[in-house]
Amino acid sequence: LDFHDEAACELASSCLLRAHRIDKREGRTPPIAYMCVYIDGSVRGGRTDWLAAPTWAIWIGVDHPLNSSGRVPGAHASSFRSESYALMQAIRRTRLNAHFFCDNKAVVDLFQKVVNRDIDVDHIERLDDADIWCAIWRLTDAKVIAEQPEAEQEEVADHWFRITWIPSHTL
To answer: Which of 23, 27, 87, 162 satisfies CB 3.0 to 4.6 Å to 99 for a cystine?
Structure first.
């Protein structure tokens, strides 16, 4: 699969969803293969706008075309914002079943609530980083839930994205 070819990624996503529906209809538990995506964010230089250098990165594998990094836009800088932005960029880039690994427990917990729809979108809109989390809400909704029949929405969303907290800075 050419990850730079948007049409190919959309077709692959569509095929995975159809296969999932067929397996479910026939009573089989569909095998799910996940792309492992490691995300990270950081802030150098403090929290004041003119000193801060918030950055994000995603890593999938050596020389993988989806590996990327950059500066985090926005009015304020924090580790939470940087990690959240990395997660949003990872969702935008993967398009297929993705298992994210993140060292920020707050980001992991909030993303799990978003994927499971255990949090109200009105709450998301009141967060300091609402711009990022509203985008994550829309991305998970647009890619998964909006395409599913009502009865399958929760189950498919739960399987489409996974996230695991990994401890860091322990040495």
So the answer is: 162
Secondary structure of residue 3 in the 3-state scheme: coil
- Token pair of 71 as six digits: 């500066």
Task: Write the single-letter amino acid at 108.
Answer: V
What whole-number distance in Å separates Cα of residue 12 and Cα of residue 15? 5
Q: Which of 7, 14, 57 is nearest to 37 (CA)?
A: 57
With tokens 């969803």, the residue in question is: 17
Tokens of 124: 């998301």
Confidence of residue 74 (pLDDT cuts 50, 70, 90): confident
DSSP secondary structure string for all residues of 21-41:
HHHHHTTPPPP---EEEEEEE
Find out whether 61 and 33 touch, Cβ atoms under 8 Å. no
Q: Is the dihedral of CA 126, 131, 136, 142 positive or negative?
A: positive
Structure-token pair, residue 9? 């990624």
pLDDT tens-digit profile of 98-151?
889 999 999 999 999 998 888 988 999 999 999 999 999 988 875 555 555 554
Question: What is the spatial order of strands in the sheet that 161-165 belongs to?
Answer: 68-71, 53-59, 35-44, 98-102, 161-165
Closest C-alpha to 6, from 68, 78, 66: 66
Q: Return the structure tokens found at 145.
A: 């839930």
pTM score of the predicted model: 0.74
The residue to which tokens 């992991």 are assigned: 108
